[in-house]
Structure formats: C-alpha cells, structure tokens
Amino acid sequence: MSSEALNIHRIARPPALPLRRTLRPLLRDPVNALGGFARQARGQVVRLGLGPFRPYLVSHPDHVQHVLRRDWENHPREGMLWKPVERLAGRSIISDGPDWESARRIMQPLFTTRYVASLTRDMAETIDEGITAWEPYARAGRWIDIYEEMSRLVSKTVIRVLFGSKISVADAERLGPAYGVAATSFASRLLLPFAPDWIPLPGDRAFMRAVKTIDEVVMPLVRNAIREPGDGNDIISALARARRGEEATTAERRIRDDLVSIYGASVETTAVALTWLWPILDDHPEVAARLYEEVETVVGRGPVDAECLPRLTYMKAVFNELLRLYPPGWILPRRAAKPSRLGDVPIEAGSTLLISPFATHRLEEFWDRPEEFDPERFAEDGDQERRHRYAHFPFGGGPHVCIGQHLFFAEAPLMVAGILARFRPEVRAPRPLTPFPAASLRPKELVEVRLVPVGGGAAA
Ligand code: HEM
C-alpha cells in the first residue's frame, strides 16, 4: 500500500454535533452552549450542525495558534461578523488584506506602551472628571446601570484619545449614541450574513441614519486635521501626518474608517469588561479586599496618574483573570481560504472556523478549576510561564493581535483605581449572570452598582 493511501487512512473525520443536539442549548444560552460543545469535544475540532451552516469549532490552543498565527494568511476575516462590520467601518484596520495591512502599519506606532504613556495624562483627566460626575449619585445612594455608565466614561476617554480637544462637547455627545445604534442595528445582517446588501432588512434604516450622524461629526474633523495636522499626539492628528502625501479623498476615507474602527473596537470591549468586574468582586470579597488595599497603598486618596500604573500589579492579575472568564472578544470567526488540516481533521476551502476565547479559556485540559475566578493564576510568581501561549488569548494573537492592549491596561486601571480611591461599590444583580452574545460579551441581566463614598455611608 502506498504511503499516500496510508495517509488517507489517518485522516480523521471531526466529531460532529447534529442540529438536534446543538439547537436547544444554542437557543437557551448560546455562549455557554459553545463552551459546552468545546468541553464535550475535549478541545478537539468539532463540527457544529446548524442547518445549512456547519462551522468548525476550534478550541485547542495548538489549533488556535495555527489559525491565528502560523497559517493566518489562509484564514482571513471574511463572511459572518466581518461583512456587516465593513458596512460601518469600511476596509480598515479591522478588515483584512492590503487595506488592513496598510492601516496596521500606520497605526502600530500609535498604540505602543510608550505612545500610550504620552496619552495617559489626558486620559486620567477625562476619567477624573467622569468619576467626579458620579458624586451626586453616591451622595443620593442611587443605583446606577453600570454598563451604561461605564460605556459613557470609556466613550468620553476614547474620544479624548482620538480627537484631543478638537471635538466639541456637543459633537462628542452625538458620537457615542450614534455608534451604539449603528453597532446594534446590524444584528439582522449578522444573523443573515449571506443576505445581499440590496435586500432591506430590519434595522437597516436606523443603521444608515446612525452612520450619517457619525460621518457628520467625524468627516469635518478629518478634513480639518488633513489641512492642519499640527503636532498633537491625539490619534486623528497622528493619522493625518502619517497619511500626508496620499490623495485627499482616499486619505479622508481611510482616516475616517480607522477612527470609527478604533472607537468601535475599544469602547464596547472595555465597557463590558468593566461591567463584569463589579459582580465578580462582590462574589469574591477576599479578592476585593486585596484590590482595595492595593489601591489604598498605591493611590491613597490622591489622583491616579501614570506613575501608579506599574505598581497596580494585583489589579493587572484581576483583569487577566476577568478576561479569561469573560473575554469581551468572545468569538473570532475566520474562513479557510484553501483546504487545510487542523491536527488530523481536514478542513475544506470556504469553511467557517469559530475560534472562541470563551471556550478555550474554560477547558479542563488546560486549566485547573476552569470555572473558578482566581487571579493568583496570573500572579507574578504564578504558572503563566508554563501555560500554552494560546490557552489565554483575550486579545487574540498573530498579526491581528489587538492593537489596543496597552491602551486597555492604562485606561481600565485608571478607571478602577480612580473609582476605588473614592468609593466602595455595592452590587445589585441576579446570579448567575448569563453571558449575552453581543458584538462584545456582556451580561444579559441588568447590573446595578451603588457607590458608597470611602469613609462615609451613602445617604438613604
Ligand atoms: C478588554 C479590552 C479589549 C479586548 C478584550 C480586545 C480584544 C481584541 C481581539 C480578540 C482582537 C483580535 C480580533 C481578531 O483576531 O479577529 C482585537 C483586535 C483589535 N483591537 Fe482590541 N480588544 C480590547 C481593547 C481594545 C482597545 C482599547 C483598542 C483601541 C485601540 C482595540 C483595538 C483593536 C483593533 C484596531 C484590532 C484589530 C487589529 C488588527 O486586526 O490588526 N482593542 N481586539
């Protein structure tokens, strides 16, 4: 028998889950269902029967590494999530191919630790103003919808990073809600990725109106920045400088698309992470106490600034563990451009591969007590060194790895330390919280927080 024939015998068919086994759990609780499918397959490739749509769920860290890093060019971001995203953000840093490559090259230097450090003072100032605005709530003992408040605070901070002082308060206040409408109103396009653009779907009109508002705000700022880039370190000025020399309308379009992409990629992800945090701390008083102590030592009652950040080491471990259990980027779909193989399993060209950090982060094969929240896993002397690089990948990996990690690890600690220097949170939310499959993973249920001033109780 030829070696080729032997090879054929070695090719395995992936275990497949038929529709009758996938449908009910997916309808009830889709994100946990995905985690369950990966667990049943013990991290091996499994094909999900979803009627005519039969994606592969890829959760083994070796396979994730293969798709995101080793063979990334054969696994572009196409179809599914990506097509509706393109209607909002164009061919930008969050697309693929040559447009992505050019945008990534230009933006990479703007999100290094060093560059982000140059933005920290402005971020800290905006965050401090936002937290001060909560003082009346705290004095009145009012419960606040923490997702809404976190989104507002993160949005203000990101707008400051993107536009510096070039945007008016009124325009900044239009941008956040318009983006929110645009991002949620393409849900039907997300569910029907194969519907052609000319077929009207629910949400299309709201989407178009929201995009119009975004463009009314962003385009004049882009044109001004191109005319006079100045030497500011805000992202719009830096992009205008970097694209000097390109044809004007092309440069305008690209800068607009990249700003919209960065806004989208940063606000929702950071806001949802900072929503999951509070119920988790409430459920783990020993972790909360240690975190409060660290903030007390590092920040005291003073303002939080760039110098505090490297000393908030426990907070970093808390965030890493939070992003393990509730990764905002919970699903990273890819399409196989050519036939390939994952382990023993042949993958046909055109197949959709679902990579889910949520599923991989909870595999028993790679995590001890995977469902337990334990920041010690990420302590400086923890077992990080021994762990597979792709057992924990909340920021993705390979050439598309999140460009905003350093921004997140500056912005989020500034916010949390700023809050904890002044307040202690009380939490009102049902348990267990259900992860809801929006563009970023958020709790399905309402999470409310009441901020109690440190050293004094809330008024009744
Ligand atoms: C908790 C916060 C965040 C999480 C969990 C997160 C997660 C991710 C993940 C998983 C990817 C990879 C996507 C893929 O492979 O298809 C990604 C890419 C990206 N992220 Fe983030 N992100 C976060 C915050 C941010 C922030 C603050 C920014 C702001 C700059 C940002 C900007 C981007 C961009 C532009 C990309 C696309 C990079 C590329 O394809 O070259 N993210 N992010």
From TrEMBL:
Cofactor: heme
Family the UniProt entry places it in: Belongs to the cytochrome P450 family.
Keywords: Heme, Iron, Metal-binding, Monooxygenase, Oxidoreductase
Name of the protein: Cytochrome P450
GO molecular function, one term: oxidoreductase activity, acting on paired donors, with incorporation or reduction of molecular oxygen
UniProt xrefs under PROSITE patterns: CYTOCHROME_P450 (PS00086)
Superkingdom in the source lineage: Bacteria
UniProt xrefs under InterPro entries: Cyt_P450, Cyt_P450_CS, Cyt_P450_E_grp-I, Cyt_P450_sf, Cytochrome_P450_Monoox
